[in-house]
Amino acid sequence: MMEGGVHRGRWNGTMLLLVCMFIPTLTLALPSDKSDQQPCPEGDIYTDAEICCPKCSPGYRLVEECHAPGQRSNCTPCASGLFMDQMNYEYNCRSCRHCKSQRHEVEVSACTRFQNAICRCKDGYYKVVINKDTNECRKCKLCGENEEEKQKCTPDSNTDCECKKGYYRVKGKVKCEPCNNCTAECEHLCSPPSPKITKGPESDQGFLLNLLAGGTVAVVVLFALVVSITHVVTKWSTKKRLLGTSSQSSDISTDSCKQVLIQGDTSNNNNLKVAPQSPVTEHEQLSNLPDCVPFEIKIPELIYTVLDLVPVLQVKQLVRSLGVRDTEIEQAELDHRSCREAHYQMLRVWAERGSRAGGMLHWPLLHDMLDELRKMHLGQAAEELETKYGIQ
To answer: Which of 15-24, 267-276, 294-303 has the highest mean pLDDT?
Structure first.
């Protein structure tokens, strides 16, 4: 029994040794992957039949691949309206592009079987890339008031505008404003820096003289200011006494200008009200008011009127042109789900910057809005506001 076990062990060991010897030979005998083959010459392709076949030239498509090394592939020219612009192994050519006049395109070169048609935007339009395969022609921008062309519009780029000399672009606004002060944008109004002067004994004496002269001028100005204030107080006291003794006088001086409030009543555009100060009729008060009376407008009523006249899609453009910042516009949209209420808040931000207590808007701000409406081609809305508030 023991001897039989020894023989079995030797036989198993011999078989294991033979298997190990033949594994490398079997591996070499297996067919190799296509990627292990020698690369095909440039312009050829390795086919499923494990041979190198030539590709088709530009302008041609594949009909039948080659069947043996050294043979050429069967290629045929692309049909009319189709093209192939590179070496290929495709059974179908590509469709030609068509330049569309309704999309403001003009043809630069026609489609051939070797290349696609080339289109460009017609004059007055420029190309905008939407994605890798899609372009769009958009109308060139026209420079606005107080602007000039920095770069003309081309088929590939829009007009680049800049402010004219002596003007600068207001932050948050589109339009250019005239330079009035020395700023980074209006350097031509800045005085050149004064040269540095070396300090010496004579300059110390000059400094003392200047200090003495400045102190003298300050004393004189202070004295004049005291005299002026005394004169005004005396005049006011005298006038108060005269008014107390002659209450029958009907003259209205320039110091007694009343504020006239324009009430937004669509049925009566001139419904003006004045706070009475004497027992006279309202008509007599209005007729006696001097020309210095400032006008003001109720803010809530004006805003709702504007929202009724301006298209919803143009409200944001209007408030931006009036100086409302994008952060304020976004905050209004976050605060209100209703589009109309969000627009109301945007316009209120603009109005309250120039308003007084009581929710009244200064008259000049309405003129600014009328100007912006006309620039946005909303002249009808501007005319209705002028009619409502009696603007001549």
So the answer is: 294-303
Question: Which pLDDT belongs to residue 321?
Answer: 92
Other C-beta atoms closer than 10 Å to the C-beta of 242 total: 10
Helix (H, G, I), strand (E, B) or coil at 146: coil
**What total number of domains does the chain contain?**
4
Q: Clarify whether residues 73 and 177 are in a common domain.
A: no
Q: Within this chain, do residues 286 and 367 fall inside the same structural domain, yes or no?
A: yes
The DSSP-derived string for 87-122 is -B--SSPEEPP---GGGTEEEEE---SSS--EEEEP
Q: Is the pLDDT of residue 59 over 70?
A: yes
Element (H, E) at 233: helix 201-245
Amino acid at 218: A
Tell me the whole-structure pTM to 2 decimals: 0.36
Q: Is 210 helix (H, G, I), strand (E, B) or coil?
A: helix
Instruction: Please report whether residue 327 resides in a domain.
Output: yes
Round to the nearest angstrom and report the end-to-end CA distance of the chain.
Answer: 131
Residues 174 and 88 in one domain: no
Say yes or no: 332 and 291 in one domain.
yes
Q: pLDDT digits over 309-351, tens only?
A: 999 999 999 999 999 999 999 999 999 888 999 999 999 998 8
Q: Which residue has the tokens 């200090």?
A: 211
* Integer Cα distance of 173 and 318 in angstroms: 10
Domain limits for position 167: 147-152+159-189
Better pLDDT: 289 or 232: 232
Residue 358 burial (10 A CB sphere; 0-12, 13-18, 19+): exposed
In a shared domain, residues 107 and 88:
no
Question: For residue 126, what is the domain's CATH number?
Answer: 2.10.50
If asked whether residues 91 and 164 sit together in one domain, one would say: no
Q: What is the pLDDT of residues 17-37, one digit of tens each?
A: 665 565 544 444 444 444 455
Residue type, 113: R
Tell me, what's the pLDDT at 35? Answer: 46
